[in-house]
Amino acid sequence: MHTALLLDMVAGSFPDRAALGPSAASVSYGELAERARAGAVTVEALGEGSLVFIGLNGPTLPVAVFAAGLLGRPFAPLNYRLVDEELRRLLARTAPSVAVVDDDMLARVAGVEGVTLLARSDFEAACLDPANRAGELAEVEPDIAVLLFTSGTTGEPKAAVLRHRHLAAYVISTVEFMGADEDEAALVSVPPYHIAGVSAVLTGVYGGRRVVHLPAFTPEAWVEAAVAEQITHAMVVPTMLGRVLDLLQARGETLPHLRALSYGGGRMPQPVIERALAMLPHVAFVNAYGLTETSSTIAVLGPDDHRRAIASDDPAVRRRLGSVGRPLHSLELEIRGPSGEPMPAGAAGEVWVRGEQISGEYLGRKLIRDDGWFPTNDSGWLDEEGYLFVEGRLDDVIVRGGENISPGEIEDVLRAHPSVRDVAVIGLPDEQWGERVAAVVVADPPVEAETLADWVRQRLRSTKTPQAFFFRPALPYNETGKLLRRALRAELAAPVPA
Amino acid sequence: MQLTPGSRWKSAVCDTEAVVVRPPSSPVALECGGQPMVAIKDERPAGLALDPDFSAGSLLGKRYLDAETGLEALCSKGGAGTLAAAGRPLTIKEAKKLPSSD
Prior knowledge:
Chain A contains 16 helices and 26 strands. In chain A, strand 24 and strand 25 (434-443) form a beta hairpin. The longest helix of chain A is centred in the first third of the chain and has 18 residues, at 29-46. Chain A is globular and about 70 Å long. Chain B is 0% helix and 31% strand. Chain B is built from no helices and 10 strands. In chain B, the strands form 2 sheets. In chain B, strands 5-1-2-7-6-10 form a 6-stranded antiparallel beta sheet, with no helix packed on it. Chain B has a 4-stranded antiparallel beta sheet with strand order 4-3-8-9, with no helix packed on it. In chain B, strand 3 and strand 4 form a beta hairpin. The interface between A and B is medium-sized, with 44 and 21 residues. Chain A: Residues 409-482 form the AMP-binding enzyme C-terminal domain. Chain A: One of its GO terms (molecular function) is ligase activity. Chain A: Residues 10-363 form the AMP-dependent synthetase/ligase domain. Chain A: This is Acyl-CoA synthetase (AMP-forming)/AMP-acid ligase II.
């Protein structure tokens, strides 16, 4: 099923309803469909290949997503925050292509072979041109909808392939057609090159919820937009939530219109979500777990799960606040051991998933098996009631003397220490044990390594107690909040000059 | 009638349009208003009328299911006819409403 049909259904039945942008100057579903059509006609005349998008969030993003769909071409949003050399290297990989680029970014990507550049302002003007709106488009067989370059925390970015059928399956199985009330508005602050930025376009349109894009995230811009636009729904990554809460507290702002806040894209520190629940009691919190390769969300911890967990004295229920909830009904999820054997409740292994929204494919490489199961490379376990606990990337699991040690558990314990502002636990090469546990800590006020070691030893086994502590002013994150463990490992594993 | 996922169909006797979401486990005819649906690009056959026994209507945006074959179709345009498979009216598959996650 073609994602363009989703917009057709909405635009055909609710052409005048507000779809995008601030309420004072919104774009309707009918207008979005017209612009997408004109955009497709424009891009088709310029050249062949993928429709690349390099720019900030805004109403032009959905226009470009649907324009690419109408042409049956992949939509490939690139990370404009990369340094010029990396950005140009990724852009070269999309050739042949037509790239819609923010005017002030054009100079950074000029002259890449096989890529036709189109300034965003020219694209936007062309989408309003009656001649383009009247242009003819050929019927196309939908195939690849989106090419998303993964963040590359584990090496050279891979181009994840999402087909129309994956995205459409995700949308229609998780969102009720035009199920939103007319006063609902979603604030999208994840960038266009993040899977949540793309899926928010599709689920927003199909659900009939007006989408307000934040051009780029800052806590100030987020809070100001949430207040001004009476935002009812939003999605943030964990690092954004902490910063938003700080600002709300400083300003005494309570966001009375906000009804639901979902978070995902990385591990949420438990103190942050506990604080959020206390500060915003009227908000329904949702933890959404998913990967680019799974067309976004595959498990959710819903508002009731949050409330039950925070109110419970039962440790098994309480700890679910640190889980990602239960798998969607529309797919299957299993934990498997190293030889593919299913693991019982409580035992950790690799998270495998199967369903119509699962792509599990990169350009030139398929990880999804013939039977439809996809190994996520995430390590996790299910509790007795099917709540999924994700421990992190399988590659990040520390193997010390044959014992698998998950960094997340140790990080949670360290983070609960009053001096610890942030922490990363990683494995470093060790001659005796294969790997040893090391912690990189941001501490304020300063704290002795031995004090932290005792803190962990009292709460976990001694084998899980870090043997080395490194203190840093900050930890390296990419701009969507993913901790760059690889960078830390590379830095700390390097031989120290004598 | 090749009811492949993503294939689009229109009613021969009303405005209804549907897209196949899940194919049937065995061949079956997808009908609307008592008549077989036709491929979206084909001409509607002349002279057919809406069967009053299949005139309960179809609703835009609803997912319809034939429990016997597993055929599932999304109504992409509503109309006066009832969606059916081999004479069995399809039932609306209630979406398990999920909290917004993105």
